[in-house]
UniProtKB/TrEMBL annotation:
Residues 202-231 form the Magnesium chelatase ChlI-like catalytic domain. GO terms for molecular function: ATP binding. Pfam families: ChlI, Mg_chelatase. InterPro entries: Mg_chelatse_chII-like_cat_dom, Ribosomal_Su5_D2-typ_SF, Ribsml_uS5_D2-typ_fold_subgr. It comes from the Bacteria. This is Magnesium chelatase, subunit ChlI. It comes from Sphingomonas guangdongensis.
Amino acid sequence: MFRYEVNRGRGSRRLVAIVSTVAYLGLEARSVEVQCTLVAGLPAFVVVGLPDKAVAESRERVRGAIAAMGLALPPKRITINLSPADLPKEGSHFDLPIALALLAAMGVVDAEALADYVVVGELGLDARIAASPGVLLAALHASGEEKGLICPAVQGSEAAWAGSIEVLAAADLIGLINHLKGTQLLGAPVPGEAVAAGFGPDLAQVKGQETARRALEIAAAGGHNLLRSWSPLNGTHRERLDDFGFRCLEHCGGRASRLFKQQLTSALGKRLPVRFRAKDGLSADRTSCPNGSLPIAESVVQSVLMTLPKRSAR
């Protein structure tokens, strides 16, 4: 999309190319406008709008990707503004929207063709579009805004889980530009096969120990810390706690269910990693914990559970 600003000093108009993207705040995707202007002055490439280190370094990746396409940046002052300016911008997924906004300002691509898309993706120096975290959240956000999504080709099947939205999954910047110009057609991705990662032992196999099992269920549902301080709560319970959180996700609706599908169809094809929480600090070990107790493993997925069906203790 193009926007014109009036330069009152000279009475001329300055062109601002705009591309839509998102910033991630936990499990929420916030709308961000990538605005690009080319003005006369000493050649420079500036990114403003509260970017972190990864976003600030995007100018070098964008510069290298454009050079790999055989194009040169104009000898002007290039300013990239990430609006709203008070929202922190983190992650390498800003590379692709910054590059497209710059190419639109240069006249290489039609900015109006990008107005109906949310863009995410990391760029390599060879103009390839690499995977970036949070594509499914960006796709859900684009669906709510009634827009399509431009994302890396390797994550097209993941973005397709968002529903009936147009997904342009490109492997490189040249292929994406050719598609926008109508000289090449990118195939529509389909949702990937949900291949289960293989669950371990079931908590239902533990006989008795109603109090201990109930404590495990509450800890898994709420993402709470759990400290083992008596012998019956041993490795048998610990193995089953990790898989209990994943089984609960299958019965959850809304965003938690979509996140479960995301981890089933991730590029790695593996379950999300397991993290350990210690009540007295991350450095707690068997020596520092009383009675030789250690924290129970919790899945990263369990921390995003909002609602769980009631489960009676056996």
